[in-house]
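Hi P.,

Sorry for the delay on this. The queue was packed all week, but I finally got your sequence through. Input first:
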Amino acid sequence: MSVNGQQQIPFNGMTLNYHVETTNDLKTVTNLEVNGWSNLRFYDVSSSSSKLIVTTSGTLTQNGEVTPLDSNSTIDFPTDQDTLIFLKNGGNANLGIYAGPSGLIIPYIPGFTVDLTRTWSMIDMPIINSPLGTFSTYRYRTQETIPSPYGTVELTVLASYDKNTQILIYGEVVASMSGFSAIIGKVELREANLEFTPSATGSPQCVIATATYGSEISPEVQFLREFRDQDIMDTMAGREFMTVFHAWYYSFSPNIASVIANNPMMQSVFKVILYPLIGILHLSAATYSMFNFNSEIAVMMAGFMASALIGVVYFSPIGVLISSKKRTSNLTNSIYKMLLLVWFGSMICIVAGESASISSVLMLGTSVFVLSVLSLFALTVGKICFTVIESARDSKLTNARAKE
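Then the structure:
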């Protein structure tokens, strides 16, 4: 069934099948694991109400003991207000969302339930990749602090709704305690008897960082997204560079993220890898703020800072290798001259692209600018490091010979 802006949601016979699961983080702390399905079917739909058949199937495993979670119930459900399953006023900053009658709330932490019927706040409009497609969504959040056997826990519940149909596509529950945050539960729409119109507009996800830190609301991921969306994307040069960067980044990052997400060891490795990058981008954000009297100058200075430090931290070992080769002095000097010419040419492209508002020229100029600065600093620091190593080695040999 095709869904468009004029079609009533829900409709008679509308069926949604959600997969519900807890995560390894929750299992590690509580020895609790939930995995199952929740099937929702609407009938007797009117402009104000409907009947909703809720069929659940799955298992709850705690301390090795498996308990079935099979149930079937029929409830009265409103159709004229914002609900946890679908919205009527998606896009508004705050919504009073109805989550269902008492007794249907999922106990995310053993012994406690959270009534999610309350006011939710929209936090962003991310792109969500799901088995049904890629969706531009409204994402809403609510929070509550509750006691638990493990200490005071702050729960953050996130729900993402397709902009076109306003149906819940994806949700997650994040628990925070003593400065540590982790996703403990997920719900994802896997099947539906309607045709969506997936879209890919909106704020792209930082997929590798999200997989590494476990949640899109982790401080690291929020910083990356806000710096990109509020600063970089607010400039002409920044937008065109991000167009090229996204085309490159999303050609491989989803595959890497899928490996990281379910592998605690890989998450630990990538936290180490990303730690310097997060620090570099914080410095870049500070640089942007220093020059924010002109956003285009600010983004170029921030880009220069980020490119230079990324070259130093991640690529200077390559510069050391190049410098370590014999008879490469003339070659290294030639590379320097070439890179400087390329960098100067990229600046001309950026100025010309901005002056004439030519996207293709700006894409080329900003991309070459980043790569040339990165290469120059990687080669320079690599050469300095190699010179220091050579000097230390020569000094050691001289001292050894003197003692002889």
